[in-house]
C-alpha cells in the first residue's frame, strides 16, 4: 500500500473501516491499490492533467451536514428524488413517493441484496476508482422492472459541504438497471461548496429493448476536485443516451466506458464543458462495439476562457466481427482567450471491414465574419461575442428532456457568457 500513500486523500480513505457489503469487490480494489500510485503527467492518459494540487491538501471524510436543497430541486422530480450529503444518504431531503409500481429507487445500503451485480461493470482504472470500490459507504440504486416506463425524471443529487478547515472527500456510488423494455430518464447531479474531492463511480445496465436517457450534471464548487467513472453495458436493441454537462470544479476528470454487447444496441455520448479562470476539465471516453450491427454517436464540446484547460481523448473501438457498425464522433472546441488551451485526440480503432465510421475535431476562436455581422446589426462587440458563445453550447442543452433542468443550465450558460438579460433565449 505504500505506493499510494503520497496522497493524504488515500491515507484518509483507507483509514476508514471497510463496509461489510460486497466484500469480493472491496478485496479486489484493495489489492489493486497496493500497486497503484497517484497518476502523474508521465503517464500517457494523464500527461495534460497535473494532480500536484492534491498533494498539498489534508483530507478528512465528509460528515453529515444540514444543507439547503431548494436550488437543486426539479419540479418534475419532487416525488422521485434521492439526496446524499457528503456521501451520506439524507432520508429527510429525499422523496420517493411518486414512483410506478415495482420501481426500486433507494439507497444501496438499504438493499444490498438487490445490487448483486455491483462492481461487475466498472473497472479499477486508477486509484480514485479503486478507492470508491474499496471504501464507498452508500449510494443510489435504480431498478426499473420489465416493461415499466417511468413518466418523470429520477433525480439523484450528491452534495458536498466543507464545514471545517480541512478539505473533505466523498465516494458517491450509483447503480442503475433497466430490465427488458423499461424506459426512464435519470438525472445524476453533483454540487457543493468549499474545498473537497468527489470520487464517483456509476454503473449502468440497459437490457434488451430498454431505453435510458441519462443526464449527468457537474456543478461542483470552484475549489473542488471531481473524478467520475461511468461504466455502461447495453444489450440487444437497447438505447442509452448519456450527456455530461461540466461547469464546476477546479479540476474534473470523466472516464465514461460504454459497451454494446448484443446486436441492435445504440448509444449516444455527448458532453459540454464550460470553463474559465484556471479550471481544468479532462474527458477520456471509450465506446466499445463488441458485436455487429450497433450504432454510436458522440459529440463533445468545450468552451475555454481565461487560463482554463480542457482535454478530450475519445476512443471508438470496433472489434473483430463487429460488421455493420455505424459510429460517428465529433469534438468541437471554442477558445475565448489567448491563454486558454484545448487538447483533443479523437480515435477510431477498427478491426472489421464492413463498417461506416467517421470522426473529426475542430478547435478555434469565434468567427470574425459572424462577429462583424452581429455588430453590423447593432449589437455591441461584447454582446456579439457572448451571443455566439451561447449559441455554440445551446444545441446540446436543447436536447435535455427535463424542462426545468434545461432552463437552469441555459440560465447558467447565459450568466457565464454575460447574456443573462436576453430572456428570449431561455
What does this structure look like?
The chain is of the alpha/beta class and 426 residues long. It has helices at residues 8-15, 23-33, 52-55, 127-135, 368-376, 381-397, 403-417; strands at 59-61, 81-85, 88-89, 104-107, 140-144, 154-161, 167-170, 173-178, 183-193, 196-206, 211-219, 225-234, 239-246, 251-260, 266-275, 280-289, 295-304, 309-318, 326-335, 341-350, 356-364. It has a domain at 372-426. 17% of the residues lie in helices and 39% in strands. The strands form two sheets. Strands 1, 4, 5, 7, 8, 10, 12, 14, 16, 18 and 20 form an eleven-stranded mixed beta sheet that branches. A ten-stranded mixed beta sheet has the order 3-2-6-9-11-13-15-17-19-21, with helices on one face. The chain is globular and about 65 Å long.
At a glance:
With 426 residues, the protein is of the alpha/beta class. Helix content is 17%, strand content 39%.
Keywords:
single chain; alpha/beta; globular; 21 strands; 11-stranded mixed sheet; 426 residues; 10-stranded mixed sheet; disordered N terminus
